[in-house]
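It is worth pausing here to work through a concrete case rather than discussing structure prediction in the abstract. The textbook approach is simple: state the sequence, then state the predicted structure, then interpret. We follow exactly that order.
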Amino acid sequence: MKLLRSAMLFALFACAVAPAVTRADLIYLDAIQRGWIKQTGAGNGTAGGNGYAAGNCGVSMSNTCLDGEIRNFFVFNVPAYSGQIVTAGLVLDTGAITASQSVQMTYEVTSLSTPFDFSALGTGTLFGTRKYSVANAATTIEIPLNAAAAAAIRPMSQFVLGGRITVPMPQGPAGKPEFVFAGTPGRTRLHLVTFAAIVDVVEFYNASLDHYFVSSLQPDIDALDSGRFPGWARTGETFRALSEPSTVTSPVCRFYIPPPYGDSHFYSASPSECDLVKSAFPMFVYESAAVMHVEMPDPNRGVCPSGRVPVYRLWNARADTNHRYTMSIGIRDAMVAKGYVPEGYGPDAVAMCAY
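Step two, the predicted structure:
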């Protein structure tokens, strides 16, 4: 990843204060109902300790699904909670697995409304996927649920999921077995992480300087909106970050480059890059180790975790160094066309992953 090339110009606040950091809340929920339904409509009921199954077990397997394809469901009672869910995972104890058509089979978890039947299971909005192989038999796995799932979870309500095998497609009663099954006393749990606040990171632009600035801090935003620092106006662009850390987030550090060397701000979500900047540029003011929290892309591919949005960092490649941070591919490409240099991970130069 490229680092700062020269001094930066124009700063707004030399000593901004980061939001107070508090611990995230972790919620663990056991399924109150789970089970399977055959394509004939028969099922094993709705008790919380029922077995669940998905796929096609063929004529050679037990009579659980001799009638062809079988799909499953899970029901959770979500309690009252504060904040907003940003991470969710479905934890499953796996029993028998048979995969005779291919090395791996794909299991999909989707939204589900009640009441439901066989046709509704695994056909709603996609919430998560998992590739199974026989090596996963008798293990506990977690399926990360995406942002659509997190948005669908509501306090004091039921969260219902349907699941099915989609690749390879189940073949009917005489087909080769492709089957995932877990019985009692296997556990099905929903893991949730909530945060007190998701904050908007607001972008401003100063036309006379041709500089951009972003901040999630209300004192910064108020000062620019009120005109106390003339020339700045909102661009209308924002991205979302967290005001609190979790086990999956990375803190975003912030540097101020004083006027002798420039007058601007620099952000990084990489702790190692923050340390490198501190060491290489001791004249820069290290304002905060964590003005906000985001997730990091894969360092080689630049791919964000499921449900997260890439944020691109672009350097203006001028003596009056300034960076722009955007989640818009169109803006990124337009800035590159103007001579800006992308700085980040992977072929698309992703700097961080927003919410």
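Step three, interpretation. DSSP finds four helices and 22 strands in the chain. The longest strand covers residues 157-167.
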